[in-house]
Design brief:
The complex is a heterodimer of chains A (98) and B (371).
Chain A (H helix, E strand, L loop, with lengths): L1 E4 L2 H7 L4 E4 L7 H11 L19 E5 L2 E2 L11 H5 L4 E5 L5
Parallel strand pairs in A: 1-5
Antiparallel strand pairs in A: 1-2, 3-4, 3-5
Chain B lengths: L2 E8 L2 E8 L6 E6 L5 E6 L7 E7 L3 E7 L7 E3 L11 E3 L5 E3 L4 E7 L7 E6 L2 E5 L7 E2 L20 E7 L7 E6 L2 E5 L7 E2 L20 E7 L2 E9 L3 E4 L7 E2 L12 E3 L7 E3 L17 E4 L7 E3 L17 E3 L7 E4 L5 E4 L7 E4 L5 E9 L1
The chains are: A alpha+beta (98), B mainly beta (371).
Chain lengths: 98, 371
């Protein structure tokens, strides 16, 4: 079970708490994690990444183990701690706006 | 019991305000979608319990909602708005080519005949349509692929398609307006489009009477006279009596002819309403007085409606989709402000009451008249 921390607005949209658990078959990457999130919570489609290009939305960031993975390859393996569910994968909205 | 339901979109959520047909006591529900910018909500004329809502933010993009119980509960619906065919470019503010880039849905216009059919006007300017209750959206790309499309430029709010009027007598005829391209009409259900900007004069563009390039802020019609259109342009209040083929100015004695919304009385097709705003650089009412202006003869002769509205120190704006009318026997007029007030008149504008003082900035106001 992969643990994912969602920003507050996406928690409200998905009707979840702060942390969700998702299952990923095969390689655990940014792409497969977000694939699994969108499959489990269809309301989140298009909110984390573009529908077609699959690129992360500009004001969304991905973190794991206190490291910013936002600019890593979508297909790079995530750290083992994430894959094992020991640590969560963080999706964070930029701090901006009013 | 008949009554009204006022759908208010704000920068931090949606609010639903209801009353019986006396319109003296009001119940305010919300915020729905708290903290999120709700650009527009609108109910289906076929089934008033069906309401569509557009939520958008720079963080999480476009999110669409639908209610089947009059706004008590909501479900998310399809939010993929993909341009059809060659995406191409329009002009950016500096005149350079800029690829069309979807940002948000500005306006939702449910079909007059089918509860599952809705038109969506979006930024960057395009018209989309769903026929399955919002699960999927397809672009009517004849508009964006009009031969002038690559010359369209954004207004200050972006290149947005903000007004959609459906002709109740002709299902193939639709009018739209785009800032800052102008107004367009289709007579074949959206396949092909004609710019309808002849007669407009815009001194702030190099060719003041160009075919396109006018910053139209809002257009309106009365269902009984769908060939008569009214327009609030960036500057100038305009009128056409031939479905937009030719416009003439009806600003008359308005204190300023800059403004955003324009509405038509529910039962008097020659009675129209605007909210004059000082100028394009001063987005607040002249003299700090919030005045709705009414013309009972289709323009040119206007009277200020002030009874119940603040007449000193008022520096709010009223955005283009933030005024609406109900269809009760004594027509009600409603509008919301960037200061978070929602005002209503149950007597065609003669007197006003404040429904709520302190909402977030109001983006849109739509009214449903309930059976």
């Amino acid at each position: 079970m992969i643990r994912v921390i969602l920003p507050a607005h996406l928690q409200a949209l998905a009707g979840t708490g702060k942390e969700i658990g998702i299952n990923v078959d095969g390689d655990v990457t940014q792409r497969t994690v977000v694939d699994a999130i969108e499959a489990a919570y269809p309301a989140l489609r298009g909110t984390i990444r573009d529908h077609r290009t699959k690129q992360r939305r500009p004001m969304v960031r991905f973190f794991a183990l206190e490291q910013d993975l936002s600019h890593e390859s979508l297909d790079a393996p995530l750290p083992d701690e994430i894959a094992r569910g020991d640590e969560p994968f963080w999706i964070i909205g930029a701090i901006s706006g009013g | 019991m008949s009554g009204v339901r006022v759908l208010v979109g704000t920068r931090k959520g949606a609010f639903i305000i209801t009353s019986d047909d006396a319109r003296h006591e009001w119940d305010i529900a919300g915020p729905h979608f708290p903290g999120m910018e709700i650009f527009h909500l609108k109910g289906s004329p076929v089934d008033p319990n069906r309401i569509y809502a557009s939520q958008a933010s720079d963080w999480f993009g476009q999110i669409m909602h639908r209610s089947d119980d009059g706004g008590k509960t909501w479900e998310t619906i399809g939010n993929e708005f993909a341009y059809e065919g060659e995406v191409g470019t329009h002009q950016f503010y500096d005149g350079t080519p800029h690829p069309w880039d979807f940002r948000r849905v500005w306006h939702l216009e449910p079909s007059l005949h089918d509860v599952d059919t809705v038109y969506a006007g979006v930024e960057d300017a395009a018209l989309f349509k769903t026929t399955d209750g919002g699960q999927t959206w397809l672009e009517l790309d004849g508009l964006r692929h009009h031969s002038t499309g690559n010359t369209w430029q954004p207004g200050a709010g972006g290149l947005c398609l903000h007004s959609i009027l459906l002709d109740p007598t002709n299902p193939d005829r639709i009018f739209v307006a785009i800032s800052a391209a102008g107004a367009f009409r289709t007579d074949d259900g959206g396949q092909t489009w004609t710019p309808i900007n002849q007669g407009l004069r815009s001194d702030y563009i190099p060719d003041g009477d160009a075919e396109v390039g006018h910053c139209v802020h809002n257009i309106a019609l009365h269902p009984s006279k769908p060939d008569t259109l009214f327009m609030q342009k960036h500057w100038d209040v305009m009128r056409s009596d031939n479905a937009g083929d030719l416009w003439h100015e009806v600003s008359g004695n308005l204190p300023t002819d800059f403004g955003f919304p324009i509405s038509v009385h529910a039962h008097e097709p020659e009675t129209i309403y605007v909210v004059p705003i000082t100028s394009d650089s001063h987005h607040f009412p002249p003299e700090g007085k919030l005045r709705v202006y009414r013309s009972r003869n289709g323009g040119n002769e206007w009277e200020a409606l002030t009874n119940g509205l603040p007449q000193e120190n008022c520096y709010v704006n009223v955005l283009r989709d933030a005024m609406s009318v109900d269809r009760l026997d004594s027509c009600g007029i409603y509008f919301g402000t960037t200061g978070g007030q929602v005002y209503a008149s149950a007597d065609s504008g003669d007197t006003w009451q404040t429904l709520v003082h302190d909402l977030p900035a109001v983006m849109s106001v739509e009214v449903q008249t309930l059976p």
